[in-house]
């Protein structure tokens, strides 16, 4: 079943957040319809809903990397290991499960660690109508074991401006940092994968 709500019935603050990320109308509808759909059908089988949530979260992460490749990463393509975004999505859901509002109370900051420098890529707020109860910081890592291809050396001077890479390869490893906003004494949880 597909939710058929219109843009007018969706939270305007959430829409402006998505517009600020420069998404087109179809992408905004897709992201908002998913969360609206999950809220109006609470009787879905838990496993089906969790799988759908995981798939959509993985897609949101892929979209984030796609948007960032030219604006913040300065490359023409980002090579993502198979199933990496799915693994991350499952871990985000696991870390969200013990929170008062679950994933809806999460602010997810997405970063990339390149040569020991952390670059901010994006921020995802799942439900702007819910007061955030925790933050997750996802840190993708560059695959430092990969040698640049000869093609990259030849293309750098010919087609791209200085500082523009042809391809950025991500490592299968990543880091998730969880910070509870409602309980400062709870501390920070860091999980390295």
UniProtKB/TrEMBL annotation:
Cell compartments where the protein resides: Cytoplasm
The organism's place on the tree of life at top rank: Eukaryota
Keyword Oxidoreductase appears in the UniProt entry: no
Signal peptide positions (record): none
Cytoplasm in keyword set: yes
Pfam families associated with the record: RTP801_C
Keywords: Cytoplasm
Family statement drawn from the similarity comment of this UniProt entry: Belongs to the DDIT4 family.
Reported function: Inhibits cell growth by regulating the TOR signaling pathway upstream of the TSC1-TSC2 complex and downstream of AKT1.
Name of the protein in its database record: DNA damage-inducible transcript 4-like protein
């Amino acid at each position: 079943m597909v939710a058929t709500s219109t843009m007018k019935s969706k939270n305007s603050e959430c829409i402006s957040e998505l517009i600020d990320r420069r998404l087109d109308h179809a992408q905004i509808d897709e992201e908002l319809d998913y969360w609206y759909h999950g809220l109006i059908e609470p009787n879905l089988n838990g496993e089906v809903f969790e799988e759908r949530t995981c798939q959509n979260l993985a897609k949101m992460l892929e979209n984030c990397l796609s948007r960032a490749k030219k604006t913040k990463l300065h490359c023409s393509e980002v090579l993502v290991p198979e199933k990496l975004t799915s693994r991350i999505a499952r871990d985000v859901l696991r870390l969200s499960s013990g929170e008062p509002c679950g994933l809806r109370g999460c602010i997810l900051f997405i970063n990339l660690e390149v040569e020991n420098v952390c670059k901010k890529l994006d921020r995802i707020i799942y439900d702007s109508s819910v007061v955030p109860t925790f933050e997750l910081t996802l840190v993708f890592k560059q695959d430092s074991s990969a040698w640049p291809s000869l093609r990259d050396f030849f293309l750098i001077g010919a087609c791209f401006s200085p500082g523009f890479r042809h391809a950025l390869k991500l490592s299968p490893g990543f880091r998730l940092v969880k910070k509870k906003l409602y309980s400062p004494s709870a501390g920070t949880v860091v999980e390295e994968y």
